Every structure is written in structure tokens, then in C-alpha cells.
UniProtKB/TrEMBL annotation:
Similarity section: Belongs to the peptidase M24B family.
Domain of life, source organism: Eukaryota
InterPro entries: Creatin/AminoP/Spt16_N, Creatinase/aminopeptidase-like, Pept_M24, Peptidase_M24B_aminopep-P_CS, X-Pro_dipept-like
PROSITE patterns according to UniProt: PROLINE_PEPTIDASE
Name by which UniProt lists this protein: Creatinase aminopeptidase
Length: 495
């Protein structure tokens, strides 16, 4: 992941180097501006300017780094820990490696401990990190609300439509922007974040309309919204044009001249900016078309996903194993599908069949920090072996024994640990109607297949917030509303 190349002291200068000798002693080395390069890239700050922003013991230029470190190691006779010299991490300069070897350091530099220690430390956030994550999520929360309000503005206004009769597109001002395709939603979201000073997105936004929302990591973001009715027989949704607006509408009109009707569908927006290298990660699923209201099927699925999420959030506290949160989401889905009539049969049989994994195929959330998935090697050790009472995931790491009963529920979990105070994580359950995932269960006796066909056009629904685990429970950093009433008020133009 790209975040592995960022230093841990908020200094992002290219060619910057640093040494931490102890908790309180840090030496930093900045690149020196070169006249020949200053007209190509922005010059680095002078040492005088850097001293005003960094509290360090020694501040010098980068070309002094190798000699300084080698000499200090020889004087201190201390152990040296370095990152693995692989493609994932910045390679130590050859002169420094030679100098380290010549210094006679005892023991010699080792790669064994530093990376695991860094990854483990990243699971628990400091107060400084918490404030950066909080700010990233505040900006992203407002950007999600902007998308809903622009969709609502489109419902109320008829004017400002981009011409569909020719290849010429009339320029429109930002205040006149409309959202009729995925790319427009992404552009407005990113612009909203940048307007508040968040230059980068924490990950590639997922902007999925209609049945594209069934794809978990859909990142095309280049299709126009569906026009006309959406159903499981529609074959054109995957080929909606990337450029222009798809107004092939099957003869359906919306009462405004010859303009077609925007089909009832959902827009799943999974997007979050970063703030000073720290991530946010928010998902909202909103109605498009239908006057800014969910269809009955989409509303039923949305409310079930919201129930899954709210129950999960209410349960969060230190000591709770993440596997139990995952299991609860599956049980809530099963109970909801039984109530809707999508599942039939005995509850215990449905649980043991693990058929809910076809509709909820991913983990309920993950750790978040410098990386949006922060950090897999520490939050989910690789090996899983069975024992008499517990399943071991490595030294001092265990998971509940009942997790062995339904392996598909936990297959894609990115976090398999008990929660601890100071963790920051997402809670993002979802329900999807993916043709690929449904294919193996098309003959299942536990599914009402005739009723399922009526729900497949929903595509998918996911709701995601960022939570901070506190001593007594959790705190939600995501500020965007998520009740059906709140969302529909915005997307219908009533607020």
C-alpha cells in the first residue's frame, strides 16, 4: 500500500529522512533545493523554515544523513532496526548500508522487529491521529450531503440540462451542475473535498448506479444513470455510455417536453478524502429517480441494512471480538429476509446453509488510519488453525470457536481481533443482488425465487460509518444522516 512509504511524523517531503533514537530524540534530514531544479518542481523549505514547523534535535540536509547515522551508531553502540529491503518500502541508500557495515554495529541492523511493531502500533490511534481522522471524516460527510442536495435540486428544477441533441455541450457553472451519471457524482464529491482543503482521496471512489451497486469495488464510475424502467432483464445497464447522457428511455416521458424519465434506482457512493495522510471511508446509498424516493423494494433492503449497521454499532466496546459483530450482521440479514419472504424454511437450517453469504459476501468493516485498510498484517494474521476450545490466529490472538461453524461468514474479514480502546474502524454492512454470487444458489430451497426477481433490480445497498472505540463504547465520526426520511428529504428537494 502506498501509505507504507509515508513517514510517521507528518513530513511528506520527497527525499526526506529521519532517525528516531528514543521516544524524545529525533533527527531529521531535509533535501536541499537545487537552482537547476527549482524551476521544475517546488523547492523544499530551507532549514530555517523547517525549524519553525518541526520539533527535532538535529535538522540538517539529506546529504549528511549517511555519515551522521553511521557515526552515531558507532558512538551509541545501539541496535538498529530497518524496514525490509523490498519493493514495498524505500530502499536504504547504498552508502548508508556500507557505512552501517563499516560501523561495526553489534548486533547488526535487523529487519525482524520494526515492521511488525509499526503495524501493531498503528491499530491504536493517538489523540493527534484521532483529530486528523475526525477532520477527514467531517469533510467527507459534508461532501456526501452535497451529492444528496444536488440530486434533490435536480428533482425540483427542469432547466440546466446538458444538451442531448448534439455532441456540443454547453458549459455550465458549478452552481448549475447536475448529476445524471456516475462521473458527475464523483466530480462533485472530489470538488467538495478539495474546496475544504482535502487535496487527495483516501482511495478511488466507488460511484455505482442501479445494478452496478451489486459490484463491491466497482470503480468504473463512467456510466450514465439508467433511463426508463430498471429490472433484472435489462441488458443495457453495463453498456450505458461513458460520455454523454444515456437517454434511451423505452418511450417513457417525465412530463417535460420530450425529456425521458430517470429510472427509479439507487446510487451507491463509497468515497472519502484524506486529511494530512489520514483516511476517511464513508458509504451512502441514495435514491435516484422516482422523485428522489426509494422504491418499496429498495426501501425494504435499505432499512434492513441500516438495522444491521445500527445493531453492530450499538454493540461496539472494548473486548468484543469482531467475529461476533460479523455473525450478528448475518443473523439480522437472515431474520430480515425471512420477514420479507425472501428466505423460507427453518431459521437454523438457513444459518447452517450459509446462504446469506451470497447476499452479504464481505466483512462488516476494517481498521482505518494512514491506510484506508490499516493494517492487514496486524489486524488479521494469516494462519488459522483449530484447537479444542479456540481458533488460534497467531501468538496471543484467538477467535471464537463458533466461527468455525460457518466459515463463509468470515472468509473476507479484514479484522479478526477483540476490539481495544483507541482503535478506529468502519462498520459497513451491505446487501447485494449480484448475478455472479446468486448463480450458485439459484436452485436453493431456502429462497423464494419469484420474489427475489422483484428485488434484483435494487442492485446493492451499503451503509458505512467510521467509529472510534472508547473506554465505554464508541464514537461515530461520520456526520452524514442515514435515515430514510432524512435522505429522501434531501434527494427529493424538500430540504
Amino acid at each position: 500500500m502506498r501509505r507504507r512509504q509515508f513517514p510517521l511524523d507528518d513530513n511528506c517531503l520527497p527525499s526526506y529522512r529521519g532517525v528516531q533514537w528514543s521516544r524524545s530524540k529525533v533527527d531529521t534530514f531535509h533535501p536541499q533545493g537545487r537552482p537547476i531544479g527549482n524551476n521544475v518542481v517546488s523547492p523544499p523549505p530551507t532549514l530555517e523554515a523547517a525549524r519553525s514547523t518541526h520539533e527535532v534535535d538535529i535538522l540538517a540536509y539529506s546529504d549528511e544523513f549517511d555519515k551522521h547515522v553511521a557515526g552515531a551508531i558507532k558512538t551509541r553502540e545501539t541496535a538498529v532496526h530497518i524496514l525490509p529491503q523490498t519493493i514495498q518500502f524505500p530502499t536504504l541508500p547504498a552508502p548508508l548500508l556500507v557505512a552501517l557495515s563499516a560501523s561495526g554495529a553489534n548486533p547488526p541492523p535487523t529487519i525482524k522487529y520494526l515492521l511488525p511493531a509499526l503495524h501493531s502500533a498503528r491499530l491504536i490511534k493517538t489523540e493527534y491521529e484521532i483529530e486528523l481522522i475526525r477532520q477527514a471524516n467531517a469533510i467527507s460527510s459534508r461532501a456526501h450531503e452535497v451529492i444528496m442536495r444536488v440530486l434533490g435540486k435536480d428533482v425540483k428544477e427542469v432547466g440546466g440540462r446538458v444538451s442531448t441533441g448534439s455532441k456540443e455541450v454547453t458549459a455550465v457553472m458549478p452552481g448549475q451542475w447536475r448529476i445524471e451519471k456516475e462521473a458527475e457524482a464523483e466530480a462533485i464529491f472530489v470538488a467538495s473535498c478539495r474546496r475544504e482543503g482535502a487535496v487527495h482521496q483516501a482511495y478511488m471512489p466507488i460511484v455505482a448506479s442501479a445494478q452496478h451497486a451489486a459490484t463491491l469495488h466497482y470503480c468504473c464510475n463512467d456510466r450514465a444513470f439508467a433511463w426508463g424502467p430498471v429490472n433484472s432483464e435489462r441488458q443495457d445497464l453495463a453498456t450505458q455510455p461513458a460520455n454523454g447522457h444515456a437517454h434511451a428511455h423505452n418511450g417513457t416521458q417525465n412530463g417535460h417536453g420530450n425529456e425521458p424519465t430517470l429510472a427509479p434506482q439507487v446510487l451507491l457512493l463509497d468515497a472519502g478524502c484524506e486529511w494530512r495522510n489520514y483516511a476517511s471511508d464513508i458509504t451512502r446509498t441514495t435514491p435516484v429517480g422516482n422523485g428522489g424516493k426509494f422504491t418499496p423494494e429498495a426501501r425494504a433492503i435499505y432499512e434492513l441494512v441500516l438495522k444491521m449497521q445500527e445493531e453492530a454499532i450499538d454493540s461496539l466496546k472494548p473486548g468484543l471480538h469482531w467475529d461476533k459483530v460479523q455473525l450478528q450482521c448475518h443473523l439480522t440479514l437472515i431474520d430480515g429476509f425471512l420477514e420479507l419472504g425472501l428466505f423460507k424454511g427453518e431459521r437454523a437450517d438457513i444459518i447452517n446453509s450459509e446462504i446469506s453469504s451470497a447476499f452479504f459476501p464481505h466483512g462488516v468493516g476494517h481498521s482505518l488510519g494512514l491506510d484506508v485498510h490499516d493494517v492487514p498484517s496486524a489486524s488479521k494474521p494469516e494462519a488459522v488453525t483449530a484447537s479444542s476450545s479456540l481458533l488460534a490466529l497467531g501468538p496471543n490472538v484467538t477467535i471464537p470457536i463458533e466461527s468455525a461453524d460457518h466459515p463463509s461468514f468470515y472468509r473476507y474479514l479484514r479484522l479478526r481481533l477483540p476490539l481495544a480502546t483507541g482503535m478506529v474502524l468502519t462498520v459497513e454492512p451491505g446487501i447485494y443482488f449480484s448475478p455472479h454470487l446468486l448463480a450458485p444458489v439459484r436452485s436453493s430451497p431456502y429462497i423464494d425465487h419469484e420474489l427475489l426477481a422483484k428485488y434484483e433490480s435494487v442492485g446493492g445497498v451499503r451503509i458505512e460509518d467510521v467509529l472510534w472505540i472508547t473506554e465505554t463504547g464508541c464514537q461515530n465520526f461520520t456526520m452524514t444522516g442515514k435515515s430514510v426520511e432524512w435522505i429522501e428529504k434531501l434527494t427529493s428537494g424538500q430540504a
